[in-house]
Amino acid sequence: MSPSPEPTPEPLSPHTLPLALAHRTMRLSILEGSFAMFFINWTSGSVLTGFALHLGATPTALGLIASVPLLGQAISPLAAWLVGRRGRRKGVAVLAALLGRVLWALAALLPALPIPDEARSALLIALVALSSIFIAANGALWTAWMGDVVPAQERGRYFGLRSGINGMIGTVANLLAGVWLDRVGAPLNFQTVLLVAVGAGLVAVALLTRHDEPPLGGERLRMRSTFALPLMNRTFRRLAVFAVYWGFAVMISSPFVIPYFLNHLRMSYLQVAIWSTISAVSALVLSPTWGRLADRVGNKPVLAVTTFLAGTLLPLTWMLAAPGRLWPIWVSGVVDALVWSAINPGMFNLSLATTPRENRAAFIAVLSALTGVAGFLGGLVSGPLLELYRAFTPSATGWTAYHTLFATSATLRVMAWTLLRRVPEGGAWRTRELLKRAVPPRPPRHWR
């Protein structure tokens, strides 16, 4: 097999939906994503962290609980191969979403089991891992599916709008969960939230069945080719190196942001929900703006700027906070929206812009698998790193092991742009040009 050609701008193809059907599915996807946000937010973040702490999770267990969903992405190429053999994505995507969400009903039973706390934590990790296999398969197929549905010239605006709306829905979910978790005793508070999350997830699955699907393009690949074809593409390899590095760098600290809020800063669940609300409201404004900018200048320069900010300004706002001094955390909510409302859609759109439409599901699935393994390894390392830093951090100072962990991740994040600049994107501006346009030149001084 010879190396595949480098990706080019997508031509009109018979494997696309009529525009009316595409816009119908795009509207349905926003509604489906709104219900999915209840499931996502109530099976992750402060809910999952608090539930794990209630079950007696150690720092290493917390790192695993946060990272095993990424390991589940390693199954994505298998889902892509299965879809290629069947010639359709919809059935496999719907089934994966259904199984991944129904499994969470079992989590509500964990506090009632007559077993040691360590065993409950281990079972929670196993449950998260199993569910994540199906959720990740659905995510990879959904990415390729919606990449074929949404016209290329509308992707930035559409996914920015979808991200902003879903972020607002996630805000409502977080506030409701925060109030409930603070007012109702454990474990009933966690059990109720998890069961309602499953119900919302099933509504999202029902809406997914109503999406239209364009025909698959490309040849039906063998299992080996599903892995080999993307890796033979030089542009894809460059994208994968950047995405793998970024996923690892982020997950060095990501599993312990919420534990830092709850354990060190002594924030309540409602306060964590308020932080999420600040982020979501800010994202509602910023997401469409970033989307329009990415449509104009390309995804690379936007990602270069925002990944740098995610490694500098965002960790700094966390570390400036202290128990009783939470104003930097409220600032961090805005910064969180500033960076992630650009990074998440930007990574998504860059993966679509730099992969060929033919056999795109294989490309996206392999990228998902590689970044998932990298993120898992980052999360796997994060727990032991935190324990190590605790052993060498003087307790009398205001500096904690959390701060050292955040600084470690920040150092890695700020270097990501060096790998991003090697990823080609047709028509994208240079980052220097974007910064030059964004910052007007100083007027000349006139000396008398």
UniProtKB/TrEMBL annotation:
Task: Supply the source organism for this entry.
Answer: Deinococcus sonorensis
What residues does the Major facilitator superfamily (MFS) profile domain cover? 235-448
What keywords are annotated for this sequence in UniProt? Membrane, Transmembrane, Transmembrane helix
User: What residues form the membrane-spanning segments?
Assistant: 34-55, 61-84, 91-110, 122-147, 159-181, 187-208, 239-262, 268-290, 302-321, 327-350, 362-381, 401-420
Q: Name one Pfam family in it.
A: MFS_1
InterPro entries per the UniProt record, alphabetical: MFS, MFS_dom, MFS_trans_sf, Sugar_transport-like
Q: What is this protein called?
A: MFS transporter
